[in-house]
Design goal:
This protein is α+β, with helices and mostly antiparallel strands and 226 residues long. The two termini are 22 Å apart. The relative contact order is 0.14. 26% of the residues lie in helices and 30% in strands. The chain is built from 8 helices and 8 strands.
């Protein structure tokens, strides 16, 4: 119903959809159902979701949408990337659990490098997802459609807010080797923690990004313009 309303102009391009609570009241469904519906709309390119400011209608746009996943979103813009998984397994990390205030130190570790057609890496991502509930056996059963974002959404784990620490750092030897870049080359280092509407940790991810390819557009508050 929301998809049809967007296509017919009920929700103008660039406007915000009602919040989760309003959608739950309108349709008489659970929070998980609302989040899964918003995820489907994102995959269809009808909305772009931004942690902390609601859902933005982008019917004909091609945003770099976390719900789509970076590879698909960049491909939509004409940038073809190859993604190689360096690590995908269940781990124990007591230090990270303490930092995030979690009772369990079990995580799913997913490390990926994304490269251009010439072999040069543009991003190296170290994702850590709490291995709880339906995600406990994720490393064994694999990702849904090879997308972590889609897998998290299917499990009802939808980011609602995020906290990021951003710095510029020289690449260490191991990271430079994975990226096919030069040790010491300056990359953006972005450490982020995404939480759902209840404040539970959805994902902690540290990304190394080529500053000639990536820029960070920061939005604050829930009243920002699309």
């Amino acid at each position: 119903m929301l998809a049809e309303e967007i296509r017919t102009g009920v929700h103008a391009d660039g406007s915000r959809l009602p919040g989760e609570h309003a959608l739950r009241e309108r349709f008489g469904v659970s929070r998980t159902t609302v989040r899964q519906a918003l995820s489907v709309l994102g995959e269809q390119g009808l909305i772009e979701t931004h942690a902390g400011i609601g859902s933005i209608v982008t019917f004909d746009g091609t945003p770099l949408d976390q719900q789509l996943g970076w590879t698909r979103a960049l491909a939509a813009q004409g940038t073809e990337l190859t993604t190689r998984t360096l690590r995908f397994e269940r781990i124990r990390d007591a230090a990270l659990a303490a930092e995030l205030g979690l009772d369990s130190d079990a995580f799913i570790a997913l490390d990926r490098v994304r490269r251009l057609s010439d072999g040069h890496g543009v991003s190296l991502e170290f994702s850590r997802v709490p291995a709880v509930g339906a995600l406990a056996d994720l490393a064994e059963r694999g990702l849904d459609g090879d997308s972590l974002s889609r897998t998290l959404a299917a499990a009802g784990r939808i980011p609602d807010s995020g906290d990021a620490h951003i710095a510029v750092a020289g690449l260490e030897a191991a990271d430079a080797a994975a990226l096919h870049r030069t040790p010491g080359e300056s990359f953006l280092r972005v450490a982020q923690v995404f939480r759902d509407a209840d404040g539970d940790v959805v994902e902690q991810v540290t990304s190394l990004l080529d500053p000639s390819r990536f820029q960070l557009h920061v939005r604050t508050g829930r009243g920002g313009h699309p």
